[in-house]
Design goal:
The protein has about 250 residues and is of the alpha/beta class. The chain has helices at about 20-30, 40-50, 70-75, 90-100, 115-135, 170-180, 190-195, 205-220, and strands spanning about 10-15, 35-40, 55-60, 85, 105-110, 145, 150, 155-160, 165, 185, 230, 235-240, 245. Helices cover about 40% and strands about 20% of the residues. Helix 4 (about 90-100) runs parallel beside helix 8 and helix 6 (about 170-180) crosses helix 8.
Length: about 250
């Protein structure tokens, strides 16, 4: 798991097969006082990953050998570090697929450098906020329970009633945290977007609906008739469970 560091000392891994883009992005992040290590393909990335865990990954989709979607799927079960996909495949369905397999954000190529930096910093701030909130003594209960589930806000561990541990991505954990801290209240998509990304969603950003869908699957909440995370038409989402300190 990546260390709890502030954004200005974070380590970013860039997985990108284009050498010009690797050079450009690493130089851009260095100017922002962010450390960047680059890998040309998945094989090189995994070697980096075994020796030093990053705080955020910028991941291309189309690479020789193992592609970015495969890397993202593997990371989802291994770590809660944020993943930002940067890909020339910028169609809406490509974005949906990327978010469904575990990415926390998606930016199309060519991208505006300032937007890339803004998205990186937003993901790092979100991670820092959630870690500080979970670890702050006395601020809130460290462990909560709801509908037979137990969630540790400090270690990000989710446990089912039968004791089975459920892996959550960074986005899924932050979404669940937003729900358990405001149970039985309707949260709009803008409310949730502020929690997840620190920015307003644009008209075509389906990431909230995708994150909710993924979280429902993790919580065994029937997507056809969800009982735990209900959709409130034209309003947002309602977390129906009673949440108690555990």
């Amino acid at each position: 798991m990546a260390s709890n560091v502030m954004a200005d000392s974070a380590l970013i891994y860039l997985v990108e097969d284009d050498p010009e883009i690797r050079q450009l992005v690493c130089a851009l992040l260095a100017r922002e006082a962010l450390e960047c290590e680059a890998a040309p393909d998945a094989e090189a990335f995994w070697r980096h990953y075994e020796t030093r865990k990053p705080d955020l990954i910028i991941l291309d989709l189309m690479m020789p050998g193992e592609d970015g979607l495969s890397v993202c799927r593997k990371l989802q079960g291994m770590s809660d570090m944020p993943v930002l996909i940067a890909s020339a495949r910028g169609e809406p369905m490509d974005r949906v697929i990327g978010l469904e397999v575990g990415a926390d954000d998606y930016i199309g190529k060519p991208f505006e450098p300032r937007e890339l930096v803004a998205r990186v910093r937003a993901l790092l701030r979100r991670r820092d906020r959630s870690q500080r909130a979970g670890a702050a003594p006395g601020a809130e209960a460290r462990r909560v329970a709801f509908a037979g589930w137990r969630l540790d806000l400090a270690t990000r561990a989710l446990e089912a009633e039968n004791g089975l541990a459920i892996e959550l991505t960074a986005g899924e954990f932050d979404l669940l945290t937003a729900f358990v801290r405001r149970p039985q209240q309707v949260l709009s998509r803008d409310d949730i977007m502020d929690v997840l990304k620190g920015r307003q969603a644009d008209a075509f950003d389906r990431s909230i609906d995708i994150q909710v869908s993924r979280l429902r699957r993790k919580l065994n909440d029937d997507p056809r008739q969800p009982a735990l995370i209900r959709t409130v038409r034209n309003a947002g989402y309602l977390f129906t469970a009673e949440v108690t300190a555990s």
